[in-house]
Amino acid sequence: MRLRGHLSAMAAALDCPRGLWLSKGRLAEFAACEGLLAASLAAERPPFRHSVESAAGTLAHRSVYLDVASERAADVRSVVERAAARLAEGDREFAPYWRGLDQLDRAEHVAAASARLALFREAFPPLTRSWQPVGEQMLIARLGGGLTLSGRPDLILGRQDRLVLDLKTGVARPVHAEDMRFYALLATLVFQRAPYRVATVFLESMEWQAEDVSEEMLAHAAARVMQTAAAAAGLLGGGEEALRLTPGPHCRWCPRSPSCPVSAHLAS
């Protein structure tokens, strides 16, 4: 495939001292601030711990996944309760968070996720097997030079003509469109056929942020990947002398913020 060959050739030319994995998160870090990407590559960020908001999103996503997989075989609350039990049993990040909640806090999470799942059912018809729905499928594309792209879209519908969806519990942000363009590129590399459309679906508002997949979109996504890969390869090689530092909301969770000369967190 021409697109894979083009990307592989550019990736092979990178001077990367070790294997490099890029996800939509790493691409967003580079777009926000090169210092944030450098901190992430250096494993300076503390281990992830769920907040109320992130745990709510995780439970809502798993509930949708289970609802699709079971073809709506149970009522909304039963699906959410089963999803919570599965996460509490096997998710290393969600399990300790869930264990730390009392019965009322857990009930509040289940109620919120039930409301979101009900909205999902309103927004989508029953996804029977004819849709060939696949939830949370890990997509991995290994390119040259040790560069690997990976991502896990929330839902993929169809096989010949694919629709790739990401479900959100918050409000629309510009990075969501870029995330979906990355998923379009990744799906094209993995399936050797471009999806016809990608979309972010916001469960609270039932708003769709959709974009048809085109050659121009894939070229844009590929350029964004290679720009990030080149910067990451330089950082892994020890080249932090001229970091492009950009203040913004991301400063709140950047581990370098306390000593960063341009941190918006310090200015506030």
Overview of the molecule:
This protein has 268 residues and is an alpha/beta fold. 49% of the residues lie in helices and 13% in strands. The chain is built from ten helices and eight strands. The chain has a five-stranded mixed sheet. The chain has a three-stranded mixed sheet with strand order 1-4-3. Helix 2 (24-32) packs across helix 3, helix 4 (52-69) crosses helix 5 (76-90) and helix 8 packs across helix 9. The mean pLDDT is 90.
- Spatial sequence of strands, sheet with the most strands: 2-5-6-7-8
How does the helix and strand content classify structurally? alpha/beta
Percent of residues in β-strands: 5-15%
Shape: globular
Describe the structure using short key phrases.
5-stranded mixed beta sheet; alpha/beta; 8 strands; about 270 residues; 3-stranded mixed beta sheet; globular; about 15% strand; 10 helices
Write the layout of secondary structure elements.
Elements lengths: L1 H11 L7 E3 L1 H9 L1 H8 L10 H18 L6 H15 L3 H6 L3 H21 L10 E2 L3 E4 L4 E5 L3 E3 L5 E6 L5 H18 L5 E6 L4 E6 L2 H22 L27 H4 L1
Parallel strand pairs: 1-4, 6-7
Antiparallel strand pairs: 2-5, 3-4, 5-6, 7-8
Helix pairs in contact: 2-3, 2-9, 3-9, 4-5, 4-7, 5-7, 8-9
Write a compact overview of the structure shown:
The protein has 268 residues and is an alpha/beta fold. It is built from ten helices and eight strands. It has helices spanning 2-12, 24-32, 34-41, 52-69, 76-90, 94-99, 103-123, 174-191, 215-236, 264-267, and strands at residues 20-22, 134-135, 139-142, 147-151, 155-157, 163-168, 197-202, 207-212.
